[in-house]
Every structure is written in structure tokens, then in C-alpha cells.
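Researcher: Quick test of sequence recovery. C-alpha cells follow.
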């Protein structure tokens, strides 16, 4: 048995290393589950008086996985100026809202002012500068 394992590692060691690396990367980059039980709960959250950035994503989307560190940093940078919410289009309520809001691909980003008015929409990798500028402009107007 030990000899078979050694032979397997010699023959397929690179393949096994790549597969293990991909599994580890996926575990690190995947976005955890949604925190909303319903679309109504999310809609109440975006009208709470604070600007809201929403990302529609899927954990099987390569752009979503690659963009996760940028979205994490955006969340840290915006701090108390805006909340950043993430909705998986494979689960409710993300699936429901993606359909209602016409999300055709992931990732898709929205920015809402504190009253629930949509101010920004973009599909594809996050434009961190544009998102930050939009939220900063909102913070300037409300202060």
C-alpha cells in the first residue's frame, strides 16, 4: 500500500498539488451564505437611512471569486459610511431579487441611498473607485 501511494505521488504529484491548491483557494475565496431570510427583509435593510452596496454573486463564478478580496477591502474602506451586502443568486432571496432587478450576470453591483433609491448599477468586476466615489458623494450630501 505504501509503495502504491509513493508511486501515485511520483506520477501525479503535480496534479494532486494543483487540485489541493485549487480546493484551498476556493475555500478561502468563496463568499459565505446570505444573512437574509427574505427579499422583504433585504428591502427593509436598504431603506434604513444608510447607503447600501449590494453585490449579486455566485460561488461558482470565477470573476466573483477573484473579486472577493476587492469587495472585502471595499467593505473595510467604506466602514460606517455604507453597508456592503452580498446576495448569492443560487439561493433565496438573492435568486428572487436578481430576477426582479434584472440581474443577467454575476457579479452585479448596486448602490442605494438611505431611502432605497438606486443610484448605481454595474455588472462585472467591481469598479472600486466608482463605488467608493458614489458612496463618498452620498455621505457628503447627507452630512
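Model:
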Amino acid at each position: 500500500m505504501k509503495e502504491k501511494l509513493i508511486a501515485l505521488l511520483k506520477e501525479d504529484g503535480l496534479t494532486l498539488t494543483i487540485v489541493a491548491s485549487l480546493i484551498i483557494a476556493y475555500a478561502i475565496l468563496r463568499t459565505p451564505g446570505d444573512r437574509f431570510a427574505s427579499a422583504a427583509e433585504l428591502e427593509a435593510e436598504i431603506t434604513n437611512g444608510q447607503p447600501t452596496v449590494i453585490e449579486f454573486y455566485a460561488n461558482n463564478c470565477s470573476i466573483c471569486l477573484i473579486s472577493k478580496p476587492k469587495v472585502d477591502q471595499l467593505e473595510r474602506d467604506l466602514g460606517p459610511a455604507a453597508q456592503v451586502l452580498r446576495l448569492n443568486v443560487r439561493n433565496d432571496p438573492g435568486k428572487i431579487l436578481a430576477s426582479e432587478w434584472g440581474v443577467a450576470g454575476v457579479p452585479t453591483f448596486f448602490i442605494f441611498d438611505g431611502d432605497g433609491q438606486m443610484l448605481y448599477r454595474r455588472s462585472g468586476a467591481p469598479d472600486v473607485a466608482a463605488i467608493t466615489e458614489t458612496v463618498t458623494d452620498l455621505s457628503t450630501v447627507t452630512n
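Residues 2-29 form the longest helix (28 residues).
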